[in-house]
Design a protein that fits this description.
The protein has 267 residues and is α/β, with parallel strands linked by helices. Helices cover 28% and strands 12% of the residues. It binds flavin mononucleotide (FMN).
Length: 267
């Protein structure tokens, strides 16, 4: 088998407990990537004491001291090199990375606040949105993070059945759509199908061993697996850049209309 060229991967995880499933998955990912010869960067958000709240302290040199406009200040701070050092460091890591893996426990159908705050603060205007000062010209498949891959690994308390296509909680890929589509694909990343460990409240050693084996397999194929077929904004499916053209998936509405062949379940 030909050697996979050496890549850089950023692993971001949000759990303070070393023995948590989230942390075990993060450690396994580091191991597999290291064995493949890739360079691993790690952002342990709790360990770093990451400031989760996006607020006025993020802008030490305000463009408008009278009214806090996050978008205006973010754009100014990013383009004038006056962001806070913690945000600059995370942007430096992402921009260096060929792939980003986000690992977190599912908390209220989403990521923990510390990771949401990582996105809020690091996804600067001019970089992750409003790319190159061109408004929404480059988004969904294009933008500051184009060419990078992204993968979520989520530990989920409830059983897989609750997240199945007709499950009571709703399908996991739809619950996580704001992250996969709205946060990662928006600035241009190619997003792989989410990896989930279900039923974590009652998982036993064998279940965990099986989950770890499956996860190691997914990490090993980080640069080979097919991304979710989200429709790019500028690929022709959105003639006015806002809504699907009438000829595209004419019978579909809702989130899954933005995935090509969405009737095929996302793993
Ligand atoms: C604040 C909070 C919110 C949670 N929300 C959900 C949820 O929305 N759905 C679910 O299935 N489990 C939920 N859980 C259970 C966690 O997903 C579970 O504790 C986690 O997967 C365990 O993995 P860990 O060892 O990585 O923490 C929640 C737990 C906490 C503490």
């Amino acid at each position: 088998m030909p050697a996979i060229p050496r890549k850089k991967v950023l692993i971001v995880h949000a759990h303070p407990e070393r023995t948590s499933i989230t942390r075990q998955l993060a450690d396994s990912a580091c191991e597999v990537l290291g064995e493949q010869g890739h360079v691993v960067m790690r952002s342990d958000l709790y360990g770093m004491g990451w400031k989760a709240v996006f607020d006025g302290q993020d802008f030490p040199r305000r463009v408008n001291p009278d009214r806090l406009s996050f978008i205006e200040e973010s754009g100014h701070a990013f383009s004038h090199g006056c962001q806070t050092p913690d945000v600059e460091e995370e942007q430096r890591k992402i921009l260096a990375a060929d792939a980003v893996i986000l690992l977190f426990p599912l908390w209220w159908y989403s990521m923990p606040a510390i990771m949401k705050g990582w996105v809020d603060r690091v996804w600067a205007f001019g970089l992750a949105y409003g790319y190159q000062g061109a408004g929404n010209a480059h988004r969904y498949g294009e933008g500051g993070f184009a060419g990078k891959r992204a993968l979520l690994a989520v530990s989920v308390g409830g059983p897989a059945q609750d997240y199945s296509p007709r499950g009571i909680n709703g399908p996991l890929e739809q619950l996580l759509f704001p992250i996969t589509h709205g946060t990662l694909f928006f600035p241009g990343m190619q997003v792989l199908p989410t990896f989930a460990v279900y039923g974590t409240g009652s998982i036993d050693a064998q279940g965990m061993a099986e989950a770890t084996t499956a996860w190691r397999g997914r990490v090993a194929k980080l640069f080979e697996d097919e991304p979710i077929a989200f429709r790019p904004q500028n690929g022709g499916d959105y003639p006015d850049r806002h809504a699907l053209g009438p000829h595209i998936a004419p019978d579909q509405t809702g989130l899954m209309a933005h995935v090509v062949n969405a009737s095929r379940p996302l793993r």
